Amino acid sequence: MHKRSSVRRTRAVSYATLMIIMLVVVLLPGGQVGAAVTIFTEMLDNSQGDFARGTVQRTSISADVQSPPGTDKEGAVLLTPIGLLNKWSRDSQTLPNPGVQGHGVAALGNRIYTLAGSQGSLQASTTISSTFWATVDQANGFVVAHSYTEETLPEGATSANDFFLDDPLPPAVILTADECGGRVQTLAPRSNVAAAALEVPAGSNTGYLYAIGGIVRATQCSQSNLTTPLVQIGTVTADGNLTWTANDEGVGFMLPSPPIVDEGPPTIGDRKLGVADAAAVIVRTSSDNAFLYVTGGLMVATNLPDLTTAAVFYAKIDQTTGRLRHPTTNATDDPWVRTGNIPVVPPSGFAGTPALFDHSAMASRITVVEDGVTVARDAIFIAGGYVNPARTFRNEYVYRASVDPDTGELTWNQRPNLANRLVNTEGVARTGLSGFAYNNRLYVVGGTTTSATNSALDSITSAIHDDLFDLQTITEESTEYFIGNNNPANPLLDPLANAGIVIVPARYPEDVQAPAGAGTAWAISLGGRDRSGNTSGVLWRGSIGGLAEANATRRSVEGSYYSRFFDIRIDSDESTAADGAARVLALNWTTAIDRSRNPTADLIIEFRRVRRADARCDEGAFPANTPWVQLDSDRSSAFFSQSGNNRVELKEVFGEEKFNATCFQYRALLTQNGRNAEGGLIPPIDITETPKLLNISVEKTIPGEPDLWIERFDVTVTQRGRFDSFDLAMKNLHPDGRSETALVGADLFPVVLCVAYSELEQPEPELEIPTLPIENDDDNRVDCAPVYHWVNRPQTTPDVTLALNTGWYTNYNAHPLLPELGQDQPLTDLHTLFATPGHYAVAALIDPFNLVAEGGLGKTNNRGENLTESATTPLIRRFTILSINRLYLPTLVR
């Protein structure tokens, strides 16, 4: 070999200098040198604001903090308190004067709506068509000024006051000619309306509003107060614009009518009598179906006595348009299906078949894990209401319907509890109540217990249900399920009836600590009537899902918390993974568990993850059979969590399984005193105590490993002996496939050509190829290589061929094959390297100094071994040049 010359630094950055500037290396196990592994620690949930974004199931959030706090912030998940609810707050703002009653209410994200209704007293009220709406500050639950001007108002809207806009229902065919003495009535105002909303996509402020039925003042009809079957649909866009459907698209907008109380005369044929004081609810099921249910109601029609019904009609919602479709045929002209009646229990002394109106419908969801797979179920609870048109009998009990996620069919149960008892709301039969479900808790707000128009209640009573939707007694010895009627300090400062309640998720600024009493959502009451029977414009709001919601005289014995979905992809600027996925290495969580009173209390962390090529990260991103992985940080005991810091390194527990992910979710299972061997709950000694999850973080790194190898290497000549082509290409692909392949960690690494040469009169040269990786090379230049080629990290995209036919540099000054060129000079054409007549043997070496920490086959395929018969010897290409212009035919590759 030739004698080395000194480096000429004035012409180019040297090979060795580039190594020093561009690469940071560490000594790997076994003495190999490779790129450092970067571990990213991401705090998932730490503060109240963080935890507020998850889903609580018989759990709540609090301001608890680790002692001493260290990096822990105020915020924790604990078992929900079961006790008398604390006071709600009154918003300083009100609905547009004088308020509204007999209205429907709905919410889309942080926007709240009242639909139609009446104003004034019950004896002298005026129906309206207004849709009042405002935006709620999700950090405090109060409405904020709308800031619209006359020029910027959404189309069709007016400013009703500084906080609410009015985007009224448009006139529509509200009564057919059959119901109004031959006249078609086109009106907009009505009261006693049912309303519902579907947020699309979930977690946005956009979607669809539904105004259903109601009482109209049809002065041209023989009877002025009549019920309408009209269903109007409003589409809400991101800028708040509300567009209502016109009633010109067929009968799909009209609610059908059942036979009168399902028995006897009179018959109504195809008449659509309409309905008022029904209760509507939308359920979005685990099958991603959305169903609109209309339950019960009062019917007031010409030439008929007032009628009531226990019927339930439902339709499927097209989530792209908001239109109603038949649940099985998908038809839009006749979308309604009748399911089972509400199983109303006849009150004592009532004769006949009871129906229901002026009641409340509440939709609740539970998420559980069965056989390691997530299962979500939905149910509808019915409470309160009148059972007869004369309003002389009230419904005392609570009923439950389970929802079929695919068909929407309801299965009713009169006794929603394990003891098979009828359940009442603390022995009080209410009408004009407002109900909602949240955190596996049913809330019954206000209402009245008499038929007098000047009565109203200021209480809120609530009950908890379990994962089977069975209501739980207040204590083990009790037969009571609801608590709150006997609250000495009722949550509402003023009595209220016929209000409407909406739920708005709580959101707190990330850089501001949430208030100590913060919850996960706000329950907001809009309007209604006061104890004098007059319309109210008051807005009440209660913080729910937080520790301050109720008096913690006892707690739920168990509960769960489902985190929000975390996009844990490593930023593309840092990632060497093709899709940005991360490999989860470990989970860390901090708890506070006092086992001095409840010795078997515990907290279990489980997680699930999915790897996707796209950026989707929500419930729909997970296949239905995605398993949950249970973690045990205290394997020396029967507990899953220690009190304090917990850590599980996944490789230690699960061996070689690779937890690669783009989307991640965890859940926490809390038990007040643990479970026995059969899975049953162990009764707590201290009913006020709870384990606490204080924070949780994940450690992640770049998934996969690079594996560099020569994909092809050929030198061809023409029949006349002229140099024809040089073709060298490499690829980065792990044997386990693209998903396990990462970009290289080094910024730059070289590929070199080792060349052996002998003159024509001499035998063919022997090429001594070094074993890789090369170690103890003082000048970091491969002795056998006259040329090198730099490869940078972005060029190593997994499973992409990289051609290396240009971009070569000289490795030495005045190499015998390149006597005219200095060191580190660009080589315009490889013909120059093979211009001297003689015999050549050429081999390519990828990353000879192990700047890239490879997985898979590592360095065993960096010399073309994979292209040889033995798969263990390097690939050598041989050819002979007679003269500059003539070449012998290439010899066979050995």
Summary?
The protein is an all-beta fold and 894 residues long. It has 3 helices and 56 strands.
Number of strands: 56
The proportion of residues in beta strands is 35-45%
Which shape, going by the Cα principal axes?
Answer: elongated
Radius of gyration: 37 Å
| Helicity range | under 10%
N→C terminal distance: 23 Å
Note the total helix count. Answer: 3
Which spans have pLDDT < 50 for at least 5 consecutive residues?
A: 1-36, 572-578, 886-894
Question: Mean of residue pLDDT?
Answer: 86
Structural class: mainly beta
Q: Describe the biggest sheet?
A: 7 strands, antiparallel
Key phrases:
894 residues, mainly beta, seven-stranded antiparallel beta sheet, elongated, disordered C terminus
Question: Which SSEs are present, and which pair or pack?
Answer:
Layout: H1 15-22, E1 25-27, E2 33-35, E3 39-45, H2 48-51, E4 55-57, E5 59-62, E6 76-79, E7 81-82, E8 89-94, E9 104-108, E10 111-120, E11 125-136, E12 143-144, E13 158-159, E14 165-166, E15 172-175, E16 185-187, E17 194-199, E18 207-212, E19 215-217, E20 225-227, E21 231-236, E22 242-244, E23 279-284, E24 290-299, E25 307-317, E26 324-325, E27 337-339, E28 360-370, E29 373-383, E30 399-403, E31 410-413, E32 434-438, E33 441-445, E34 460-464, E35 500-505, E36 521-526, E37 538-544, E38 554-555, E39 558-562, E40 566-567, E41 582-592, E42 602-610, E43 629-631, E44 644-649, H3 650-654, E45 660-661, E46 663-671, E47 692-701, E48 708-717, E49 723-732, E50 748-758, E51 787-792, E52 802-803, E53 808-810, E54 826-827, E55 838-846, E56 877-881
Antiparallel strand pairs: 1-2, 3-47, 4-39, 5-6, 6-47, 7-38, 8-37, 9-10, 10-11, 11-12, 11-14, 13-14, 15-16, 17-18, 18-21, 19-20, 21-22, 23-24, 24-25, 25-26, 25-27, 28-29, 29-30, 30-31, 32-33, 33-34, 35-36, 36-37, 39-46, 40-46, 41-44, 41-45, 41-47, 42-43, 42-46, 48-49, 49-52, 50-51, 50-55, 51-53, ...
